[in-house]
Queue: 2 jobs
Job 1
Amino acid sequence: MDLPLNNGNKKTLSRLGSSSRLSSHHQSLAGAPLPGKYKTFHQKKPERLEDVRYNGWLDAMKSSSPTCAYLTKDVGITSDDSYSFWMLKYPSAIKSFEQIMDLAHDRKMAVFLDYDGTLSPIVDDPDCAFMSEEMQLAVKNIAYYFPTAIISGRSCDKIYELVGLDELYYAGSHGMDIMGPVSSNLFNHHLKCVESTDQQFGEDVGLLQPAREFLPMIDEVFRTLVENTKDIKGIKVENHKFCASIHYRNVDEKDWPRVAQCVLAILEDYPHLKITHGRKVLEVRPVIDWNKGNAVEFLLDSLSGMDNCAGVVPIYVGDDRTDEDAFKVLQARGYGFGILVSSVPKETNASYSLRDTSEV
Ligand SMILES: [Mg+2]
């Protein structure tokens, strides 16, 4: 499928064709690369409250909190008991460290790290989710020995600003914006990669942006969401370049239906977008077959193609639902170590656990 890019060039994006939902709207998207073109879509009123309830949105919003454990309803079982029981299936990565090293043997490892809730604690204001100096030093040391990437829902620029380490790879917007130094050779042989001089990095970087066509649409959706939610106290809408995030952590629960209404209305107006749930955050992103798992696959395959990285063993550490796509990739490959950061029992595709960011 040929879709126009922002810079006027054209590029074949086969992954876009993998979504039947997107294909049905191909004509309207293909002819609408400019932000203003989308403005005719979002004139309708938000969905009815009943639709929000019937669609299970409120249940999903409530269950996105880590305090909603699925085992603690059992009669007579305390949350500590539940967690201990859960850890029989997902043992502590700290206590299993020697076992993990034995399983990895002497193979080269690659380390993938989520940011929020993994390297930094979840805080009320996402702009204040800073990593400790101790954690930054630990990540820097890891990157000295192993290829290391930050895989986050935030934009690449924002995550680089928060982490501040040049030696890492960054996959922002849930993997839709992958950036790393050209000198790594990681990006050299991939058809979709381009070189760019990044203002923030101040040097040439390699970029893989499989959803580049959606940039103007996401920007417009961000501005629409800011406008439509401006009367909801405590809400925070962020533009992560390839996705827009709506944080409702500080919104009174009685107003959550209004949040859901505003976001659900976006789906009606922009059929090329979908919603995913994080920890007290809803995220609007393109309907393309690309997520954190794809980003891990791309980076792993690229690393494996490098002379000294054959058979690289991945370790992925993350804390929320979007990280499950990456855990699934490791599970499907049959090697590597998925580590879930959680203080409560959760269903997961990871193999090991850590209780909180202090254990990472
Ligand atoms: Mg996270």
Job 2
Amino acid sequence: ELFLRPDLVACTFSGSVAISVAVSAPTRFLVLNALDLSVNRTSIRFQALEPTEVVFFKDDGVLVLGFAKQLPLGEGLLKMDFNGILNDQMRGFYRSKYQYKGKERNMAVTQFESVDARRCFPCWDEPAFKAKFKLTLEVPSELVALSNMPVGNATFAGPIKTVRYLESPPMSTYLVAIVVGLFEYVEGMTTKGTRVRVYTQIGKSNQGKFALDVGVKSLNLYKDYFDTPFPLPKLDMVAIPDFAAGAMENYGLVTYREVALLFDDKSSSASSRQSVAITVAHELAHQWFGNLVTMEWWTHLWLNEGFATWVSHLAVDSFFPQWNIWTQFLDSTTTALRLDSLEASHPIEVEIHHASEVDQIFDAISYDKGASVIRMLQSYLGAERFQKAMASYMKKYAYSNAKTEDLWAVLEK
Ligand SMILES: [Zn+2]
């Protein structure tokens, strides 16, 4: 259970967590992740126990809680209160600026991949530690407050509202997302009745219609391709004015840089239409490949990104066959080969030993060379056999994690 109260004027936030922890072996310590948070030491409890030592290891983003005696075995609740800053670094829980009625305003946004959920709340911030999240936000009443799941209920107390979201399925911390600001939206529905919305700045929702159309088509296509329904009750896509990457596949709440999501019939170019389509199809593929079945550890990032890159072309080719998008797939393969020709190149799968190394492998080798290898595999095995293998991989590892070797085993079978 996670509670957060962002202050959009002071650019700070306060919060509390209650994490259900299973102690499976005798220990005196709890070791988890937290970074740039000020944790209220007197609030920390594991069951009724207070820690006698609270130590931060800043370089590792690790918080160590030492207790006087060994912890009771079995499930217990770890609770603590904390404060943080809505930073301007576009990672963790941060502020983005926008204009409304001639005035500059702040919105609160999260960007957690790869290892920045720990900047928003204390947690076990690794992809294999999946948990169900029950989030509550306290925000100004007039603002739109979005998260991974739909709102369960909201209560109003004058200028402040308390929004409680439905409990999520088991998910990794890097996919948790929150967006609080002023937005308008356009809405559509998949064939199975999943509500899809594209949120934009006030006055720009028309520019979300193209992405909405591609989004709805993508969810329909992937449901069939993976033979698995979309796992959440809704999908929102949001254009964020200040955004570090192109887009981020947060479960049920995908965030985008504005140019990666918005398309204006009157002024946008043909190439921007294509890149919006590819980006939306890529992020929505992750809702299954990445979010439902998640890489065991960042070493397997290539699998996540290579697959999403490849399958986004498959999807866009079926929506817009006149684009001959596979010919452009070769352009990105070339970009990857150029990087790969440098002496400092790396294999598509890279051993990651420390959280600080992860950022370095979000490159054309992981994405585009990875995608090219997947494409070779698919043409070697045949489209139908490959698709059936992907569907059984999805069923076998749903709500869990998998390694490259696990995919190989499914393909071999
Ligand atoms: Zn991706």
